[in-house]
Amino acid sequence: EVETRKLTRMSNSEQSVSRRLAAIVVADVVGYTRLMERDEAGTHARLKEIRAQVVDLRIATHGGRIIHTAGDGMLVEFGSATEALRCAIETQREMGTRNLYVAPDERIEFRIGINLGDIIIDGDDIAGEGVNVAARLETLAEPGGICISATVREHAHEDLGVGFVDIGEQQVKNIVRPIRVYRVTLGKGDKAASAASAMSIPRRLTRQRWLVAAIATVCVIGVGTWLVAPLWKSTAAPAPPDLSLAILPFAAPSGNSGDEQFAAALTQDVTTALGQKSYVKVAANALAATYKPGSTDIRTLGQSLNVRYVVEGEVRRVNEEMVVTAHLVDTITGSQAWSDRLRYTSLPPGPGQPVPATQLTKRLRSGLMAAERRRAVDHPESGSASNLVLRGDAASTNPGGMEGVPEARALYKEALKLDANSVSALVGLAGTYDTELEESATPDRAFLLPEYDRISSRAIALDRTSTDAWFVRMAALEWLGRWDEALVAADRIITLDPANTDGFLQRAWILIQTGRPAEGLPFIEQALAVDPTESSWPYHFMCKAQLFLGNYREAVAACEKASAENNSWINLVYLCAAYGQHGDAAKAASARDALLKQRPGYTVARYRDTYQASPPVFFDLVERHLAAGLRKAGIPEK
Question: Which of 176, 289, 296, 319 could, after both became Cys, cross-link 301 (CB 3.0–4.6 A)?
Answer without folding.
Answer: 296
